[in-house]
Amino acid sequence: MDAVGESSKDGLVVREVRKSYATPTEPLAILRGVSFDLAAGASLAIMGPSGSGKTTLLNILGTLDAPTAGTVTLNGTDPFGLAPRDLARFRSRSVGFVFQEHHLLPQCTAIENVLVACLAAGRVTAEQERRAADLLERVGLADRADHLPAELSGGERQRVAVARALVNEPALVLGDEPTGNLDAAAAAGVGDLLQSLAAEHGAMVVVVTHNRDLADRFDRRLLFSAGRLEETPDA
């Protein structure tokens, strides 16, 4: 029998996730039964109009919000069955985030910004410093490691954000319109880096986006419709 809070299935398993919010009249349903599986190393793009529930789902997958009903398990663990402190530890170790805004600290260099993700666990180790330097090299910024965000282009800042999301070697990387502020060339480069680097680490990637060109770079595409996910017509 599985331990409390655990499932026997690896990967990301989402089953009948629902989310609603209280209003003065009746609950406002945003997610109406979302289900999908994602294996280690696989990538998924979720598309849909503004207000369809993409970011709400991403927040639940990242354990920043809890579902009203349904289950989410990541490599056998149900994070919503964990105590608050254990949930925070699980999130810092298992989930990496890339947002539309890079959210780099302006007073910190590129490599210091990457290492910020390691501080939740306490002191930064020499191994983490080596991994941060390696990731900056992999995203083409080895010679910019000591530069401040103001000295980097928009595409370079977002590549730092990708390195930051991967430095803790998370099982799941989430992107909320991660290329929304970039031109087409920079967006394509960041999208390819996010997918390829995550796959090398065996991480799963889920990105929500309006950009069909970006979505087409991922293994699978799903479309929000009436609070549920369905395969895109050409998937």
Brief digest:
This protein is α/β, with parallel strands linked by helices and 235 residues long. The protein has helices spanning 54-61, 84-94, 110-115, 126-138, 154-166, 184-200, 212-215, and strands spanning 12-21, 28-38, 43-47, 69-74, 95-99, 172-176, 204-208, 220-225, 228-231. Strand 1 (12-21) and strand 2 (28-38) form a beta hairpin.
What is the fold's blueprint, element by element?
Blueprint: E1 12-21, E2 28-38, E3 43-47, H1 54-61, E4 69-74, H2 84-94, E5 95-99, H3 110-115, H4 126-138, H5 154-166, E6 172-176, H6 184-200, E7 204-208, H7 212-215, E8 220-225, E9 228-231
Parallel strand pairs: 3-7, 3-8, 5-6, 6-7
Antiparallel strand pairs: 1-2, 1-4, 8-9
Helix pairs in contact: 5-6
Structure characterization notes:
By secondary structure, this protein is α/β, with parallel strands linked by helices. The protein has one domain: Rossmann fold, CATH 3.40.50. The chain is 31% helix and 24% strand. The protein is built from seven helices and nine strands. The chain has helices at residues 54-61, 84-94, 110-115, 126-138, 154-166, 184-200, 212-215, and strands spanning 12-21, 28-38, 43-47, 69-74, 95-99, 172-176, 204-208, 220-225, 228-231. The strands form two sheets. Strands 5-6-7-3-8-9 form a six-stranded mixed β-sheet, sandwiched between helices. Strands 2-1-4 form a three-stranded antiparallel β-sheet, with helices on one face. A hairpin with a 6-residue loop joins strand 1 (12-21) and strand 2. Helix 5 runs parallel beside helix 6 (184-200). The protein is globular, with a radius of gyration of 18 Å. The termini are far apart.
